[in-house]
């Protein structure tokens, strides 16, 4: 795959850790890029220690392989470099000179003290695409603040529209169940990197990309942000209901719960016909989506009573036959057992010297021309140090051996 994949001509220097940066660089690796993950000697990416669960348990001289780390580091090559030392800084400069892209998520100014920020490295490689990912960006009054996904979900307004409505038992602002702000920023960063590479093909010049978790999370509030900007009214929490479409929410069934996701008036009419409630579709109060939004409080209890009369599987089978969007609410065991998920190849198993079977979620992008998930397992810490120095920098084995022999532990920041 590595010689024929779409990005097999690119080298990426990955100075990022945790999730947002590694999420972007994993995609680049899946597409064939030669991704060099620079890690602290003896410690590595913070997420190596974010367990249990661990696939490989940590030991005194090995941080192991946590499930979290495995989620976002497939396809990369791990190299241990202590950037707090002059020798480590020199190595990173040499690597940057041979790479197309650098991705980093240090605090603003964090790399400048090592002589490794964009202004320094563009001197050795003017064609470099540099993507910086921080909580609040390189400018503005919050630029020097640390930014974490949970904090960004709160500050961006996402938590103000997530959770049970005010006044209900247990109501409070709620975060999303995954670090969605990190992932979104990583995906926007990836799009920016690919755009800058296309621009470089035309101009020959590199680019500095400034990505902020806060910016990208606000940008993806989509209709909710637009609802506020148009109406001037901040939307509130609605639980599993939708602010602009009705009925579009969770309903209790005779044996569990289901999602009813009706997106237009035709679907509502078909649902009512199947449910024996044609009078609701004919009622002027409910015939249109606008009417259903205005009269939501009266309509939803009527639908809830009808839906409670049958089990989830029965409803799903019945409604799918009439092109009414609906479905069960799966846990992750049910997700990976689902025949559709299996048919799409979303569960993969890779192997490496560190572990014979490493479970992975496959890249969701499908190309007709070939695979889009790297067959290179997430690397053990420093597993590729010698190989990268040999392949990318042309170092001889005695020089590599001397470097590894004198490698120091990183200074604590």
UniProtKB/TrEMBL annotation:
Protein name according to UniProt: CoA-transferase
UniProt GO molecular function: CoA-transferase activity
Alphabetically ordered keywords of this record: Transferase
